[in-house]
Design goal:
- The chain has helices spanning 13-29, 58-73, 89-100, 114-119, 122-129, and strands at residues 5-8, 33-39, 44-49, 52-57, 80-86, 104-108, 133-137.
- The chain has a single domain (5-66, 74-137), classed as HUPs (Rossmann fold).
- It is an alpha/beta fold.
- Helix 3 (89-100) packs parallel to helix 5.
- The protein is built from five helices and seven strands; from the N terminus they run βαβββαβαβααβ.
- The strands form two sheets. The protein has a five-stranded parallel β-sheet, sandwiched between helices. It has a two-stranded antiparallel ribbon with strand order 3-4.
- This is Universal stress protein UspA.
- Belongs to the universal stress protein A family.
Protein backbone atom coordinates (compact mmCIF):
# COMPACT_ATOMS: atom_id res chain seq x y z
CA UNK A 1 0.00 0.00 0.00
CA UNK A 2 1.43 3.31 -1.01
CA UNK A 3 -1.41 5.81 -0.66
CA UNK A 4 -1.71 8.27 2.20
CA UNK A 5 -3.53 7.94 5.46
CA UNK A 6 -6.49 10.33 5.39
CA UNK A 7 -7.93 11.82 8.57
CA UNK A 8 -10.95 14.09 8.85
CA UNK A 9 -10.85 17.06 11.23
CA UNK A 10 -13.31 19.74 12.26
CA UNK A 11 -11.36 21.67 14.87
CA UNK A 12 -12.77 19.69 17.80
CA UNK A 13 -10.68 18.09 20.53
CA UNK A 14 -11.89 14.62 19.53
CA UNK A 15 -10.86 15.18 15.91
CA UNK A 16 -7.43 16.31 17.10
CA UNK A 17 -7.09 13.03 19.02
CA UNK A 18 -7.94 11.08 15.87
CA UNK A 19 -5.41 13.16 13.90
CA UNK A 20 -2.71 12.46 16.48
CA UNK A 21 -3.35 8.72 16.15
CA UNK A 22 -3.29 9.06 12.34
CA UNK A 23 0.13 10.68 12.65
CA UNK A 24 1.39 7.75 14.75
CA UNK A 25 0.11 5.30 12.13
CA UNK A 26 1.62 7.28 9.24
CA UNK A 27 5.02 7.39 10.94
CA UNK A 28 4.90 3.67 11.77
CA UNK A 29 3.87 2.73 8.22
CA UNK A 30 6.08 5.25 6.44
CA UNK A 31 2.97 6.74 4.82
CA UNK A 32 2.02 10.27 3.90
CA UNK A 33 -0.65 11.92 6.07
CA UNK A 34 -3.48 13.91 4.52
CA UNK A 35 -5.72 16.11 6.66
CA UNK A 36 -9.17 16.89 5.28
CA UNK A 37 -11.86 19.16 6.65
CA UNK A 38 -15.36 19.34 5.17
CA UNK A 39 -17.72 22.22 4.53
CA UNK A 40 -21.33 21.67 3.52
CA UNK A 41 -22.36 25.18 2.48
CA UNK A 42 -21.02 27.95 0.30
CA UNK A 43 -21.91 30.65 2.79
CA UNK A 44 -19.93 33.81 2.14
CA UNK A 45 -19.91 37.08 4.04
CA UNK A 46 -18.58 40.40 2.83
CA UNK A 47 -17.27 42.57 5.63
CA UNK A 48 -16.25 46.16 5.23
CA UNK A 49 -14.78 48.98 7.19
CA UNK A 50 -14.23 52.26 5.39
CA UNK A 51 -12.61 51.47 2.06
CA UNK A 52 -11.44 47.99 3.21
CA UNK A 53 -13.46 44.92 2.24
CA UNK A 54 -12.95 41.30 3.30
CA UNK A 55 -14.68 38.23 1.95
CA UNK A 56 -15.00 35.36 4.42
CA UNK A 57 -16.35 31.96 3.34
CA UNK A 58 -16.97 28.56 4.90
CA UNK A 59 -14.35 27.13 2.53
CA UNK A 60 -11.71 29.55 3.84
CA UNK A 61 -12.51 28.69 7.44
CA UNK A 62 -12.37 24.98 6.67
CA UNK A 63 -9.01 25.27 4.91
CA UNK A 64 -7.68 27.14 7.94
CA UNK A 65 -8.76 24.31 10.26
CA UNK A 66 -7.07 21.68 8.08
CA UNK A 67 -3.91 23.79 7.70
CA UNK A 68 -3.65 24.41 11.46
CA UNK A 69 -3.98 20.68 12.18
CA UNK A 70 -1.44 19.81 9.48
CA UNK A 71 1.05 22.31 10.92
CA UNK A 72 0.61 20.88 14.42
CA UNK A 73 1.32 17.34 13.15
CA UNK A 74 4.47 18.07 11.16
CA UNK A 75 7.41 15.87 12.08
CA UNK A 76 10.80 15.04 10.58
CA UNK A 77 10.41 12.47 7.82
CA UNK A 78 6.60 12.80 7.67
CA UNK A 79 4.88 14.39 4.68
CA UNK A 80 1.67 16.12 5.76
CA UNK A 81 -0.78 17.64 3.29
CA UNK A 82 -4.21 19.16 3.80
CA UNK A 83 -7.35 20.15 1.95
CA UNK A 84 -10.92 21.29 2.36
CA UNK A 85 -13.63 19.27 0.64
CA UNK A 86 -17.21 20.26 -0.07
CA UNK A 87 -19.91 17.94 1.24
CA UNK A 88 -21.13 16.31 4.39
CA UNK A 89 -18.18 15.14 6.52
CA UNK A 90 -18.37 11.40 5.81
CA UNK A 91 -18.93 11.92 2.09
CA UNK A 92 -16.08 14.43 1.85
CA UNK A 93 -13.64 12.17 3.70
CA UNK A 94 -14.50 9.17 1.52
CA UNK A 95 -14.25 11.27 -1.66
CA UNK A 96 -10.79 12.50 -0.65
CA UNK A 97 -9.69 8.95 0.14
CA UNK A 98 -10.89 7.84 -3.30
CA UNK A 99 -9.23 10.80 -5.03
CA UNK A 100 -5.91 10.13 -3.30
CA UNK A 101 -6.10 6.32 -3.49
CA UNK A 102 -5.68 6.23 0.29
CA UNK A 103 -4.56 3.12 2.11
CA UNK A 104 -6.47 4.04 5.27
CA UNK A 105 -8.97 6.51 6.70
CA UNK A 106 -8.75 7.46 10.37
CA UNK A 107 -11.81 8.86 12.16
CA UNK A 108 -12.85 9.34 15.77
CA UNK A 109 -15.75 7.55 17.43
CA UNK A 110 -17.70 10.70 18.37
CA UNK A 111 -21.38 10.21 17.58
CA UNK A 112 -21.25 6.41 17.82
CA UNK A 113 -23.07 6.41 21.15
CA UNK A 114 -26.53 7.46 22.32
CA UNK A 115 -28.77 9.25 19.83
CA UNK A 116 -25.88 9.65 17.39
CA UNK A 117 -25.69 5.88 17.11
CA UNK A 118 -29.28 5.80 15.86
CA UNK A 119 -28.92 8.75 13.50
CA UNK A 120 -25.57 7.64 12.14
CA UNK A 121 -22.12 8.92 12.93
CA UNK A 122 -19.38 10.05 10.57
CA UNK A 123 -17.32 7.00 11.59
CA UNK A 124 -20.21 4.64 10.84
CA UNK A 125 -20.90 6.21 7.45
CA UNK A 126 -17.20 6.19 6.53
CA UNK A 127 -16.82 2.56 7.58
CA UNK A 128 -19.71 1.54 5.34
CA UNK A 129 -18.57 3.40 2.23
CA UNK A 130 -14.78 3.65 2.41
CA UNK A 131 -12.64 2.43 -0.49
CA UNK A 132 -9.92 1.34 1.95
CA UNK A 133 -9.30 0.27 5.53
CA UNK A 134 -10.86 2.39 8.29
CA UNK A 135 -9.32 2.88 11.72
CA UNK A 136 -11.76 4.19 14.33
CA UNK A 137 -10.01 5.92 17.21
CA UNK A 138 -11.61 5.89 20.64
CA UNK A 139 -11.81 9.64 21.12
CA UNK A 140 -14.97 9.73 23.25
CA UNK A 141 -15.53 7.72 26.40
CA UNK A 142 -12.87 6.15 28.57
CA UNK A 143 -9.36 6.58 27.22
CA UNK A 144 -6.84 3.74 27.48
Amino acid sequence: MTGPIVVGVDGSETAERAAARAKQLAVALGARLHIVSAFDTDRTEVLGSGSDTWIVSDADTTVAIAKQTASALEAPGLTVTYSAARGKPAEAIVAEAERLDAQMIVVGNRGMQGLGRLLGSVANKVAHSAPCDVYIVKTVGSQP
